[in-house]
Amino acid sequence: MRNTAKITTAVLATGALTLGLSACGSDKDAASDTSGPLVVAASPVPHAEILTYVKDHLAQKAGLDLEVKEVTDYVTPNTSTEDGSVDANFFQTTPYLDDFNKKRGTHIVSVVDVHLEPLGLYSHKVDKAADLKSGATVAVPNDTVNEGRALQLLAANGLIKLKDGVGTTATPADITENPKKLKFKELEAATTPRSLDDVDAAVVNGNYAIEADLKPAKDALVLESAKDNPNNNLLAVKEGNEDDPRVKKLAKLLTSPEVKKFIEDTYDGAVLPSF
Question: Where this protein primarily resides, as one coarse class (predicted)?
Fold first, then answer.
């Protein structure tokens, strides 16, 4: 059994209360408090699994007390890191982080890149992307960056064409050519695997694909290339906490040869080390 704990409303409320009680002190004092375990919010798969491997096999020898809290959405980890409910998070890519900070006014920064989860197009109805019929419905994540990645994946494989330069900010409005007249259903990223019985195909993030027992290297109709990919998953903290010695220890362990081997042995190409 994985030695992890799910974040609950009570935990978040406790964190908020603690933060409120310490407000009379200086922010500098709060940021410099490195006592106690390093609490990291993470998506269950593969992030929490990787952290649990570190906790069980590497952390004690390195003198790191690590606590892993599983979170199943893409908002809570950053808001909890911002308000101090957790010390760090491990679930997101640089483009997603940049977009989140811009829209939410948060101050989360990257510490180290750890791995890539290739985005894939999956279907329960066709075996090849070329077999999608005219007017087929494709589910895509509805958050800005992952929707852009999904559309870029479809464009890279000739299903659509996009305006030049739109990058990961692309939306269906930026499609310039759509020969199959594909229709797009925008869903929360976590729900895209469950939509596969209701749509003709869905673009699914790597972590959610793994949770749904999809094997990206085998089951994806098309898969995001790892070459020159900016969407590596990273360890992040609130700005000012980068030099926390606990964070530095975790960053070193997450990019160790042992973790690289764990990722390669465990995920069979569905997760790729970034170091």
Answer: membrane
List pLDDT tens digits, range 233-272. Answer: 999 999 999 999 999 999 999 999 999 999 999 998 889 8
Angle (CA) 194-198-200 rounded to 5° is 105
Tokens 């007249």, residue located: 181
How far is 79 from 83, CA to CA, in rounded Å? Answer: 6
Burial of 166 (0-12, 13-18, 19+ CB in 10 A): middle
**Angle at CA of residue 104, ends 41 and 150, nearest 5°:** 75
Amino acid residing at 262: F
| Max Cα-Cα span within the chain | 62
Q: What is the pLDDT of residues 67-126, one digit of tens each?
A: 999 999 999 999 999 999 999 999 999 999 999 999 999 999 999 999 998 899 999 999
Rounded distance, CA 44 to CA 57, Å? 18
Residue 94: helix, strand or coil by DSSP? helix
**pTM, 2 dp:** 0.72
